[in-house]
User: Fold this.
Amino acid sequence: MLGTLALLALAWLAGQLVRRVLRRLVRSLSRRTATHWDDALLGYGMFRWLARAVPVLMVQFGITLVPGVSANVEALVGKLMTALVVLCLVMAISAALSACEAMYQRTPRGQQRSIKGLVQLVKIGLFIVAALVIVATVTGKQVGLLLSGVGALSAVLMLVFKDTILGFVAGVQLSSNDMLRVGDWIEMPQLNADGDVIDIALHTVKVRNWDKTITTIPSWRLISDSYKNWRGMQETGGRRIKRALYIDAASVRFLDAESLERLARLRLLADYLPSKEQEVTQWNRALGEAGEVAGNRRRLTNLGTFRAYVQAYLDTHPDIHHGLFCLVRQLASGPHGIPLELYCFTASVAWADYENAQGDIFDHLFALLPEFGLALYQQPSGRDVRAALAPPREGASAASARERALELDEA
Assistant:
């Protein structure tokens, strides 16, 4: 009994001594070296697990020196200590793999492509092999015999490890085809995911949404389902603006000489109006006598001139990416007016810069519409209806009618 206690005490002291010596040695080396590998191995506990194997080995080999211990006890202790040594070694290797993954993530390539799923798969295989070795050591069975039993249960194992197999296959496809990286902005409406990818693991992909919630997506769903990746937009350096101004069709008209003279003072129309007027003049001159009829002649419209102004405005705007496609087009008219769509890209992909640029552009165009005699389409509001239905007072002017409508609205 005393011999057993003495052996356990010596094993414990040896473990503490080796652990402290290893820690001091690694810290001393880390100060002298410029690499961070030793820090990572120490931080993930590889040396701690190696130090834990020392007292186990002392017990395994020292039990034979303890007097009064039977052969059966020695054999049992030897098997248990062997199993513990295997466990310590496997945990040390697992810690080393985690350290390698952490060091890889610090590299520029590691920030784009994650190997977390591959490392997790290797760990799973390592633990399975370790479990078979431990069971074979404790029970005295051969590993080949255990593997034959595992083969008979392959159908069950396929069912148990279904998610692992699917996750591994999905991870290989995502990585080999460069479909997903850590930091990508993705949209997956069917799973309520809209934000940045923060982690790619063997089984799951984590997305931090813009409302700061976390959506966890099974890896295989990114292969079987469709999603939008905004990485292309970020790499291109321009974010698309695709919005329309809905022009009231009743405000579209031909431009008269006075309007043309006023609009010619606009800097962005200085080149457009003279060339367009010359083109229209030559066209009308070629008509001959038919040009005497106003309906046969070509004339400039306020909507077409405004479209040319918007195109010139975008072509010179500092917040627009001039290396990408830029177009102002008129879409088919509908019950909400005539859509005049702006299709262009901002020079910045940052969300705040994008919204500021878009807001400044449309603020300017909204305010400039009256200069061209145009008006935005807007459905009648309750105030408009009350103003129309309000009975005019005797001798009241239009301004008085509007004041009456405001009074009714406040009431």
Remarks:
- The chain has a mean pLDDT of 82.
- The longest helix spans residues 71-105.
